[in-house]
Amino acid sequence: MTSPSELPISGNSDVVLIRQQVRTVAVEVGLSLVDQTKIVTAASELARNALVYAGGGRVRIEIVHNNVRAGLRLTVSDDGPGIPDIDQALVDGWTTGNGLGLGLSGSRRLVDEFDLRSVPGEGTLITVTKWAR
Amino acid sequence: MDRVPVLKLGDLLIVSIQIDLQDQSVLALQEDLADKVVETGARGVIIDITAVEIVDSFIGRMLSTIASITRMLDAETIVVGMRPAVAITLVELGLSLGGVRTALNLEKGVALLNHLDGARAVTAR
Ligand SMILES: Nc1ncnc2c1ncn2[C@@H]1O[C@H](COP(=O)(O)OP(=O)(O)OP(=O)(O)O)[C@@H](O)[C@H]1O
Ligand SMILES: [Mg+2]
């Protein structure tokens, strides 16, 4: 397959497409079934957040390598309102919407590397990586 | 949007999720089930998620909501067929699916409903 790829997040059906594409690449990278499920779930959470809180965004799906392993990296970005207090947003149960407040904090637990940058008024950029074992 | 079909089998409603769930389909299912429970007087609902590859916070929350709604309408909901990888991921995500009863498969789900119904009949006496 072609890596990296970038997909738009502009509607609910895009979230489904992103989940499918992340699954395909996760299999290609050699992630275990459980790790595939974890990264697909994280992708679903982050893409939905971009849709709900920023009105849309995009996700880059790529295969990465370090010295010993291959991994799958997702970069989810949007040009929305940003997150004023990142520490607070990462607390289990914190929500400004009507969710469970588990999307961000839960996604962080599901991946090996998690990086969240956000500038109020400019947008949010989240990078997550899952390494093959 | 794809709609998830709801099948009536005796006094049970059976939902087998065979599509990649989009948020709207999940919301529609919640309403369809509430209507059908009242319309048929079903005593139990079984949601088979054998084919479901991921349950995220949105889908998980809806399963809890469906269980609460049907319980209020006097029908118990049992979620059956959860894949091991989905269970592991849900726990790590932090979702406990509070109030949702589960069984390993359809057969065990039906047995659990019958058991609950028996217990209910005894309490009512
Ligand atoms: N891309 C984003 N842009 C702006 N704000 C965001 C973004 N993603 C998350 N947030 C903020 O962070 C909060 C926590 O997000 P999180 O995904 O953890 O929970 P939730 O979306 O509220 O509920 P859940 O994901 O459990 O359904 C959100 O309520 C929202 O205020
Ligand atoms: Mg969320």
From TrEMBL, chain A:
CDD domains: HATPase_RsbT-like
InterPro entries: HATPase_C_sf, HATPase_dom
Superkingdom classification of source: Bacteria
Residue span, Histidine kinase/HSP90-like ATPase domain: 34-133
Gene3D superfamilies in the record: Histidine kinase-like ATPase, C-terminal domain
Official protein name in the record: Anti-sigma regulatory factor
Species, as recorded: Planobispora longispora
Taxonomy of the source species: Bacteria, Bacillati, Actinomycetota, Actinomycetes, Streptosporangiales
Automatic annotation (TrEMBL), chain B:
InterPro entries per UniProt: Bact_StressResp_Reg, STAS_dom, STAS_dom_sf
Protein name: Anti-sigma factor antagonist
Gene3D superfamilies on file: STAS domain (3.30.750.24)
CDD domains tied to this protein: STAS_RsbR_RsbS_like
Species name: Planobispora longispora
Domain (STAS) ranges: 2-113
Cross-referenced Pfam families: STAS (PF01740)
